[in-house]
Fold each of these.
Amino acid sequence: MNPAISRAVAVLRRGGVIAYPTEAVWGLGCDPLDEAAVTRLLAIKQRAMQMGLVLIGTDFAQISTFIGLCPESAIARARETWPGPHTWIFPASDRAPKWITGGHAGIALRITAHPVAAALCRGFGGALVSTSANRHGEVPATDAASVQKALDLPDEAMVDGELGGLERPTSIRDAITGDIVRH
């Protein structure tokens, strides 16, 4: 495993928050099952828990336990676009923590094709929170220097790499209806 990925995985396992490149912007991530880690991430972002968070995985197995009852057609619709820069909202299962869903009935999930984000999920062995690396309401960071300037994270929490080439964060769609929630 790449040394930077190994360091970041160690930070994640200690309940820390990391910053890493994604498809369009730099992201912040942590263990979605660790409420204290998610609370730290939300404090860094100055974002309310009620808004909910996106989870990413490197394969369907890493995110499937967060999906509640839904038609197989909804899962098939999303799987046709994965791995890739497509986020889908599914009904949340009982395993989806309220600090991730924000109390909503759905959960936003993506199987990433971004090499750094996917390597982090593989190294961690599960899904990660993936939200833009910026304070809520500010412009998302598009390079490591901007993340450091805005959020002052420790060096071990930074995973260098290139963005995935998208001009804006991934679209978010409803898996049941196919409707676009965010362009």
Amino acid sequence: MSERIGKYEIIRQVGEGSTSTVFLAHDPFAQRNVAIKRIHQSVLRDPERGKLYRHLLLNEASLAGKLIHPHIVQIYDAFVASDEGYVVMEYVGGGTLERHTDADTLLPRPRLLEIIFKCTRALDYAYRHGITHRDIKPANILLVAADGKDIKLSDFGSALFTASDTTQVSGVGSPAYMSPQQVREVPLNHQTDIYSLGVVMYQLLTGRLPFEASNNYSLLYRITNDEAAPPSQLNPDVPPSLDAIVMRAMQKDLDKRYQSWSDFSHDLAQAFRNHELEAQRGSIAEPQKFQSLRGMAFFREFSDVELWEVIRISEWSVAQPGTTLMQEGEPGNFFCFIAAGEVRVSKQGSLLNVLTAGDCFGEMALFSAGGGIRSARVETSTEVELMTVRASILNRASDACRMHFYKAFLEVLATRLSLANARIANV
């Protein structure tokens, strides 16, 4: 093994397949570790396969700097020639989902649902940038850490790059995860990825693929003609709600399949709200956090990427009725949003306001140097799901995220001032 590939210093080999080898390497100019997927020279020299894999490398290379999302692997660099081809990307060290596709190594259900939810949001982001993946499978879903819930989608070499580019590329894709439309080589859209992710979810729930056969011809026939058994027939622990999600994602008829990634995401988030799927009472899963924020008017102008950043910098908790969240006269350097439930705001014992889901309080901490003094008492009147952001943490957030916070808070303050003026005018 050579010590370098281009300018990159090879640290070690981390994987190998039939067409490529993946290395962990160091970029001495950017001062970071990277992953390099290098196509075997024997493949590149083959008259047919070489042409195909050079095309796939160029596909991935064209994404450099375009898909910036917390759950998509970033592409940094690529090189494609007649006898050499590689792509340089973000290094993700937790392995792939393949290790969790056997019945003996299945993931806990809340973790599985969180991973699939994040995949739906990442693929929706890609689709809104004109990209359909076309090769969704466990091997292309990377774990940031082996024991964690964060994932990154990889290998966009087979992707369609515009809504009008529906051309099939023969010889790519993994047959077991192909949609019936991909098998038939008809024009494709994002619903082919929805089907493939449904197959991944099926396998992660059961340890089995929905269709299996002794050869690819029989497998492709089954995908286009047979009906899969519901996951619960293979794993009795799968509840009806998850059966319904998987089977809708895998519908052969496009009209019956999920029409959008948002619909798919919504049903996954609903599954988290079922108490049978909660790891423990009072826990709030990330898909539930995301859906809560997306439903708030305050966050309507935040992109998906910025919402994931909000989740990352915030603290989420569940407070029981009668809990004092803020005390009048005390200093404070944080603000809160209500995801669910109701709180009462009072001053010197007099009720000022009742706040519910979507409302915020304590935001003056943003505009007070060194932490403002609370002007009112805030107490829960029901069980409340609460998101807390500390002003010092927000100051370290991205410029785009901070800008949207400040803009939305100004709208909140303007609305409250207008309501106060209206009350005064009616006195």
Amino acid sequence: MKRILIILIVLFPLVLGMAHAQSRKYISHFSNFKSYYNPSLVAHGGSVAQSIVRNQWGGLPGAPKTILGSVEGDFSQLRKLDSIGIVGRNAAGLVVLFDQHGPFSETEILLNYTNRIRITENHMLGLGIGMKYLNTELDGTKLSPEQENDPGLSRYMGGFAESKVFDFNLGISLINKQYYLSYSLQNVSGAEISSGDDFYEGRAPISNLQAGFRGMLSPNVGLVGNMLYRMQKDLPFHQEFNVKAVMMEKVWLGVGHRVDYATNLQAGFMFDRFRVGYVYEMSTKRNSKMYGSTHEFMVSFSLFEKGKQGVMGIW
């Protein structure tokens, strides 16, 4: 993607669907889906079922469309035991992501598990592992003119291809009630375990650094901040952060920024066991009007008990 800065609408699907591990999933609500990036953060916010729908660059042909859903269970809430005060000792979760961009459709399934140990009175260390299955389908009838000249893709022109990959993720995190620090490695094997057509040249491992904090500014206003930094050898560094003000324990307003890429505005509402959020994202790339705007909707439901309200109930 580095070499593609200015594009024509007729070639737009190329930017969205470059093969050879050149696609990256963007989620502005990344702080709600931390376990997608790091298995040691599964159920970090308690036992929840949640989902997002993301429509990126709406109105442009071949634009990415992403649906992500997860179910995460804290064993201390499931069985009323093993809790050590901050979050439960053990947790597991399932994440399913469907993404469509240009001629590519991807379905990703993650099974995550974490075990946490107390290291001080107020801190826990989490270790997690995730098993991943990724199915990628290529519709050769939707190739752009430049993709048709790509030797790795041209043989599928007018037809269909499918690739299946098995891999795993590892993660470690330091957790406090008011902040967390974490590191994870995704695609540990580099997609060595695969079958089907070979229109991808492997998938490089991805290193993720995540951190967040939360606290009160006044009795009625709290502040929450999160950051995500991703490193992958065949793509530029990905740096993203957001800051939210939580008011009256019911409403949040925020702003986020993806460095050299996009800025977003965020809003949401908190109920007893239910919360909803919305992000409006604007591209900051050169010729940003060509990329249009992005809309992202999030819904979350606390499974076994009333969710925590206010700043201590949100990341």
